[in-house]
């Protein structure tokens, strides 16, 4: 393996915190489970990195594999970067083309490579029709600098692209032009409600109408598309205790009870959206839960009226 | 209030129908698929319902066996089953009703104690199965048991009736409350 590539691997792996090492290496999906199992993850970081670089060498990893690892690392640490947003606008009279991801990637790469010498472009698909593009810039006489890449995240179903701050300001207009040249906007794909259509006629759903109602109510409340990513919601209750039993001691208290409820989840709003269809809760859900995106709040204080 | 009765309809030729009642629709669907994979001489029909009473305007076959499915992680599912039980005629409980409790494997997630469902099954004099329906192997096993039980309840096994089976099951698994 070329020395510069080995060094690139070493520096990229060194960046990864030990707690995330396994997760990121698995997401990278270049070293197999078996190979990872044979590595001692308890040793000092420097020795671990050496072992991993050796493994990569044995597997004949290229600079492109290293670039992919860099993308994975950045995806996990996206919040560390400052992102600029660009919105593409359609000129008047332009036709709507259908979007093809593979075509986009190959055109994007070709356009950049035609415009500049010594540029390396890597792609990694991500959730929600997004593609992460990593661009390492060189100059006419120098190979691409792998330590100052620019990231572009393009959500293909939207006119938005996000770029990480670019140390070489002059290249931003070029990126913009690359998108323009590709020139595509797509109509938003229609997402249909996922109602299970069971092929087997021996299985009959008695409550089909109720299921459809639940799906409809869920769709009306949450919409068709994926929810904004939220990790927790907190409700501070200062209300009097309400009880079904007469003569309950707690219900007789004059002062309100103080209570804190915190919901946390890797993707709270999607979890709430799936409650009724999964049969765990009734539809419609409490407005206290469903108002979160509308109000743009996730801290609530609830008092008796 | 429409109530399910076991013998209010003529049976279909060689047909055995089971009604699965529970809130966890996706898992009931998977259990139904597992049951249909079983080798069975009878023609199986599986009805899935969230709760009882069933919609009254539908033409459905005679129901031979009702299984109430409770998720031990969800008080809501137990409440749903308890309310649904009121819509079942007493004569159904002579061997044509069973309870299936899922989620016992993850004790930290259980908000219902095992004893609660055991008491419920004892109150209704019906067998209780525990099965983590999310695990394919367990699901296949319980599907097998349910198919055999369903065949007996439909009268397709000569010499064994639902009541016979119930007394056999009771003596080995669930002692009557008097015996406890």
From TrEMBL, chain A:
Nucleus listed as a keyword: yes
Q: Which GO terms describe its cellular component?
A: chromosome, centromeric region; nucleus
| InterPro entries hit by this protein | CENP-NAC/CAD_complex (IPR052011), Chl4/mis15/CENP-N (IPR007902)
Q: Where in the cell is it found?
A: Chromosome, Centromere; Nucleus
Q: Which keywords annotate this record?
A: Centromere, Chromosome, Nucleus
User: In Gene Ontology terms, what is a biological process of this protein?
Assistant: chromosome segregation
Main location (coarse class): nucleus
Top-level taxon in the UniProt lineage: Eukaryota
| Pfam families cross-referenced by the UniProt entry | CENP-N
What's this protein's family per the entry? Belongs to the CENP-N/CHL4 family.
The cross-references to PANTHER family, in alphabetical order and at most eight, read: CENTROMERE PROTEIN N
Query: Which protein is depicted?
Result: Centromere protein N
Q: What is the lineage of its organism?
A: Eukaryota, Metazoa, Chordata, Craniata, Vertebrata
TrEMBL record, chain B:
Places the protein is found: Chromosome, Centromere, Kinetochore; Cytoplasm; Nucleus
Is Iron-sulfur among this UniProt entry's keywords? no
**Where primarily located?**
nucleus
Residue ranges the record marks as coiled coil: none
**Keywords (A to Z) from UniProt:** Centromere, Chromosome, Cytoplasm, Kinetochore, Nucleus
The protein's matches in InterPro entries, at most eight in alphabetical order, are given as: Centromere_Cenp-M, P-loop_NTPase
Xref: Pfam families: CENP-M
Q: Which residues form the signal peptide?
A: none
GO CC terms in record = cytoplasm; inner kinetochore; nucleus
Summarize the protein's role. Answer: Component of the CENPA-NAC (nucleosome-associated) complex, a complex that plays a central role in assembly of kinetochore proteins, mitotic progression and chromosome segregation. The CENPA-NAC complex recruits the CENPA-CAD (nucleosome distal) complex and may be involved in incorporation of newly synthesized CENPA into centromeres.
According to the record's subunit comment, the protein's assembly and interactions are: Component of the CENPA-NAC complex, at least composed of CENPA, CENPC, CENPH, CENPM, CENPN, CENPT and CENPU. The CENPA-NAC complex interacts with the CENPA-CAD complex, composed of CENPI, CENPK, CENPL, CENPO, CENPP, CENPQ, CENPR and CENPS.
What this protein is called in its record is: Centromere protein M
The scientific name of the source species is Canis lupus dingo
Taxonomy-wise, where does this protein's organism fall, top ranks first? Answer: Eukaryota, Metazoa, Chordata, Craniata, Vertebrata
């Amino acid at each position: 393996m070329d020395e510069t590539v080995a060094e690139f691997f070493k520096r990229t792996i060194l960046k990864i915190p030990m707690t995330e090492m396994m997760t990121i290496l698995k997401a990278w999906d270049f070293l197999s489970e078996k190979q990872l199992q044979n590595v001692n993850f308890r040793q000092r970081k420097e020795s671990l990195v050496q072992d991993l670089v050796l493994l990569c060498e044995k597997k004949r990893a290229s600079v492109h594999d290293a670039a992919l690892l860099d993308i994975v690392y950045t995806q996990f640490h996206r919040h560390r970067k400052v992102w600029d947003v660009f919105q593409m606008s359609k000129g008047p009279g332009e036709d709507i083309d259908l979007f093809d991801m593979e075509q986009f990637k190959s055109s994007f790469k070709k356009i950049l490579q035609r415009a500049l010498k010594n540029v390396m472009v890597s792609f990694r698909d991500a959730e929600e029709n997004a593609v992460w593009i990593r661009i390492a810039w060189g100059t006419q006489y120098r190979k691409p600098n792998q330590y100052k890449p620019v990231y572009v995240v393009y959500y293909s179903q939207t006119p938005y692209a996000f770029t990480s701050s670019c140390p070489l300001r002059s290249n931003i207009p070029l990126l913009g032009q690359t998108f323009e040249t590709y020139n595509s906007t797509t109509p938003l794909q229609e997402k249909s409600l996922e109602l299970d259509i069971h092929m087997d006629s021996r299985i009959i759903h008695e409550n089909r109408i109720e299921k459809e109602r639940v799906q409809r109510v869920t769709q009306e409340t949450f919409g068709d598309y994926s929810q904004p990513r939220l990790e927790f919601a907190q409700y501070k209750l200062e209300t009097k205790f309400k009880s079904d039993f007469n003569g309950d001691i707690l219900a007789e208290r004059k002062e309100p009870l103080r209570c804190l409820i915190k919901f946390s989840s890797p993707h709270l709003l999607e979890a709430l959206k799936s409650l009724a269809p999964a049969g765990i809760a009734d539809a419609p859900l409490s407005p206290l839960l469903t108002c979160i995106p509308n109000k743009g709040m996730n801290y609530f204080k609830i008092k008796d009226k | 209030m429409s109530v399910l009765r076991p013998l209010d309809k003529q049976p279909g030729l060689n047909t055995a129908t089971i009604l699965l009642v529970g809130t966890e629709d996706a898992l009931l669907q998977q259990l139904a698929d597992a049951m249909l994979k079983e080798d069975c001489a009878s023609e199986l029909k599986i009805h899935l319902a969230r709760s009882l009473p069933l919609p009254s305007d539908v033409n459905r076959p005679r129901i031979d066996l009702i299984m109430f499915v409770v998720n031990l992680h969800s008080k809501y599912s137990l409440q749903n089953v308890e309310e649904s039980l009121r819509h079942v005629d007493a004569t159904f409980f002579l061997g044509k009703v069973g309870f299936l409790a899922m989620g016992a494997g993850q004790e930290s997630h259980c908000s219902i104690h095992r004893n609660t469902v055991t008491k419920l099954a004892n109150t209704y004099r019906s067998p209780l199965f525990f099965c983590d329906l999310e695990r394919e192997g367990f699901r296949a096993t319980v599907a097998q048991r349910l198919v055999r039980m369903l065949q007996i309840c439909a009268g397709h096994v000569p010499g064994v009736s639902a009541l016979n089976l119930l007394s056999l099951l009771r003596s080995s698994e669930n002692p009557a409350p008097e015996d406890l």
